Amino acid sequence: MYQINIKRKAAKALKGLHPKQRERIAESIHQMGVNPDNDTLDIKPLTNHPAASYRLRVGQYRVLFDRDDQLKIIGIEKIGHRKDIYQ
Questions:
Q1: Which residue of 1, 21, 31, 79 is surrounded by the most CB atoms within 10 Å?
Q2: Is the dihedral of CA 82, 9, 15, 54 positive or negative?
């Protein structure tokens, strides 16, 4: 099981979402903490992105995060709609 660290900015963005979206994203983040290699999660590595190394897709929303497999830590950097998150 991985420890999940959510940055303050990402937590604020999550709180501002509609409750159904917030619940879906929180459930996906929990599943990622249990097993980040789960095939049911839509996780892809990012190339040349300054904020994070990976992204988790949850519908129209994206969760950008970094992952350290040796320390078993996942750091959530940003959460947002797909049209705004990569800027």
A1: 79
A2: positive
The pLDDT of residue 51 is 82
Rg (CA), the chain: 12
Q: Residue 85: its pLDDT value, please?
A: 86
Work out whether strand 42-45 and strand 54-58 pair parallel, antiparallel, or are unpaired: antiparallel
Domains parsed from the chain with CATH numbers = 3-85 (3.30.2310.20)
Which class for 84: exposed (0-12), middle (13-18), buried (19 or more C-beta within 10 A)? exposed
Residue 39: both structure tokens together: 């095939």
Q: Do residues 74 and 3 make contact, with C-beta atoms less than 8 angstroms apart? A: yes
Please report, as a single letter, which amino acid is at residue 36.
P
